[in-house]
Amino acid sequence: MTAPQVETVSTNADKTRLIAAGLLLLGGLVAFYLLSAQGPYAQWAALLLLLGAAVAAFFGSEPGKELIAYGRESVKEFYKVVWPTRKEAGQMTGYVFAFVVVMALFLWMTDKTLEWVLYDLILGWKR
């Protein structure tokens, strides 16, 4: 089975929109810091306005449209998931806890056995 080919077609308009989105974002950050003398309302207004313009420019480009389509497909897949019932989730949680306890006991017994073999029998160290 061959992997599907991914085609990236990027037009000049898309590149321009992405560059504009990046510049608007950068401009929003710069404006936020340059408008500190005008007060917080002017700072936040400039930041949010330019950030909104950057988001609009991004979602107007092909990668932005693909991101929206990906989000919609993800929501569709989310609704296809068969979630366990409360009883099943409780049972699986119980199994996990039981397994953790059994493994903890096994590792503790292994550690104590190796400690006894190495220190008491082989090295002869008495505590």
Automatic annotation (TrEMBL):
Q: Does the keyword Membrane apply?
A: yes
Cross-referenced InterPro entries, in alphabetical order?
Answer: SecE_bac, SecE_sf, Translocase_SecE/Sec61-g
Q: Which residues form the signal peptide?
A: none
What's the short name of a Pfam family annotated to this entry? Answer: SecE
Q: Kindly list the places in or outside the cell where this protein is found, as annotated in its UniProt entry.
A: Membrane
Source domain of life is Bacteria
Keywords in alphabetical order, please: Cell membrane, Membrane, Protein transport, Translocation, Transmembrane, Transmembrane helix, Transport
Q: Which GO terms describe its molecular function?
A: protein transmembrane transporter activity
Name listed for the protein in its UniProt record: Preprotein translocase subunit SecE
What organism does the UniProt record list as the source? Sphaerotilus montanus
